Every structure is written in structure tokens, then in C-alpha cells.
Amino acid sequence: MEKNIIEVKNIKTGEVLEFTGQNVVAKYLSRVYGKKIYAGAVASAIRQDIPYKKEWQINFIKNANKKICDYCGKEYTSNRAKQRFCSDTCREEYHAGKKEDQR
Questions:
Q1: pTM above the 0.85 mark?
Q2: What is the pLDDT of residue 75?
Q3: Euclidean distance between the first and final Cα of the chain, in Å?
Q4: How far is CA 73 from CA 1, 53, 63, 67, 87, in A?
Q5: Distance of CA 55 to CAs 3, 17, 26, 87, Å?
Q6: For residue range 37-75, what is the model confidence (pLDDT) as tens digits?
């Protein structure tokens, strides 16, 4: 499963926030404005060049979680922040190599 990021920038303050989905952005904006903001409004704002409520620039960043494997150097997509290897095989080979070096 590929993970995408929605970047929300406050034009007035310069604050940049990253969210994992339209619903999360909608909840955040609902708290900011004190009224219900729907995910559909966020989706519409992503497709427009005009800032949402003249204050928020909302952009969709596809596959923001691409990483490079620490063992083989292959590019892969991760759903975990701390993941370092593209596969269990690479992880096991890396740690087996470290054990060999310690002997």
C-alpha cells in the first residue's frame, strides 16, 4: 500500500503541516475554524490553484515515503518511519554481516 501525503501551508504564517489523508486535514481545519469542514472541501481545495479560505495552500504529494534500502541500495516504499530495509531478506543479511564483522 502506497502512502501519500497532503501538505498544508498557512500562507500568512508560513507554517507547513503534513497529513496522511483528507479526513485528517478536514478535522484539523475544523478545529482551527470552530466549525465542521468536510473532506470533500479539502479534495476540492487540492485541485484548485486558489488558496482555501484565502489562507491555506493545500497540495497532494504522491508516494512521499520512498526510501533507499540500507543493505542493497534499492528504492522502496515504506509505511513505517523507522523501516531501513526493503525486505526481510535484506534485513537478515545486513544483521548476519554485522555478526560476522564482530568475530
A1: no
A2: 87
A3: 39
A4: 21, 43, 18, 9, 12
A5: 26, 13, 15, 42
A6: 999 999 889 878 889 999 999 988 766 667 889 999 998
